[in-house]
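Journal club prep, shared notes

We agreed each person brings one worked example of a sequence with its structure written out as tokens. Mine is Amino acid transporter transmembrane domain-containing protein. I'm keeping it raw so we can talk through how to read the token line rather than staring at a rendered picture. Sequence first:
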Amino acid sequence: MSQNRIGFEVSLSLPRQGSGGSSGYDDDGCHRRTGTVWTASARIITDVIGLRVLPLAWAIAQLGWIIGPVVVLSFSFITNYTSALLADCYRCGDPVRGERNYTYTDAVHSNLGRGKEWSCELVQYLYLFGVAIGYTIAFSISMRAIGRSNCFHKKDDDSPCHTSSNPYMIAFVVIEIILSQIPNFDQLRWLSIMAAVMSFTYLSIGVTLGIIKVAENGKFKGSLTGISIGTVTQNQKMWRSFQALGDIAFAYAVSINLIEIQDTIKSPPPEAKTMRKATLVSLTVITLFHLLCACMAYGAFGDMAPRHLLAGFEFFNPDWLVDIANAAIMIHLIGAYQAYSQPIFAFIEKHAMRRFADGQFITREIEIPVPGFRTCKLYVFRLISRTIFVIVTTMISMVLPFFNEVIGLLGALGFWPLTVYFPIEMYIAQMKIPKWSTKWLCLQMLSLACLSISLAAAAGSIAGVVLHLMSYKPFETSH
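Then the structure, token by token:
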């Protein structure tokens, strides 16, 4: 079974042993699965709720009170539909006794062949690499927000508090280099609990601050059509609207984990039936949470809604509450970076072992004495390769520290191929839907429409990066 976990959760399927007919084992020889609708729903929610919500207020501000929520609901509906198709691809052939697929890529391989599996893996690793960059930028934003807030309240006047992101990114890279050397970091189950607690902490504070701000204003700000021409140019309005689609798409690029979550569900009834219910429940909760956070922040700030949910509250009282929220984001991101990077680490090390199986450089260990603890053993190749990866993602983050644009690109990269294209193609192959039949045409039209949205989102995000680069000086600009 593949151990390339993506997200905080760890596959609960244990090594196969015994026979399928044994009372304590499932038909594949794994220990009997015990997951239910509620455990699966909880895992989906904790995987998704969190950092994905932070740019949504800005996205709603570009689209307005009408189109914004409609787009969020549309992405939710599409994700729920394609996730239901994906659930039917957990088993090959027979939905009750067919061979199981333990990971997303296993399902792609079984239904579409090795070539498509390689394509899927390429998209996954590019997506994960981008997430590592986005998380580095988000960490520096939260660190900088704490610094600016404390500076403002200490001076107690209108003088500017300029701070640079670079020292915070350097601090982040040091932490991640150390944590990346921990063996089996992705198997630490407390990460899931910590992630859930931190996510709900900072989002709850964000919603509370939004409510307080709206109460102070005495009204909901914003407009039906979003940020107005004049505040931005007509071209900027178009590109920002496209980028907003990418930010919302990122919030719903959730399918990558669903097969592995489905692999924890007990049967009967068939896993696909339970998973469809779990997906519906979880996406309903997620969408309500997304709309609540985004709309309260948009109502609080209107056209000036911050690109990062909590960035708009830097000068808010009580400042300690804002600091707690940003600290929770930072703690969340420290673990999240590792969880999303572990599959890339595993991929690099697996291929290095295959290519240089007899090389001493790959297997060489060094011992580092740690006072009061056991001697720490590190593989030289792991130390060098993981350190290089963390440094590279940090350098890119320093050169392009544009949170919303990076998130928009990630949404464009992850939504169409992983949430729409592969589930639809696998479902067509699994169900043997005839080419040019009505159902086949409808599915292809849905895929084409989502591809168009992803391309528009990518174009908007790239345009945003180009616009920023006209005035931004890498490694120099302070905020």
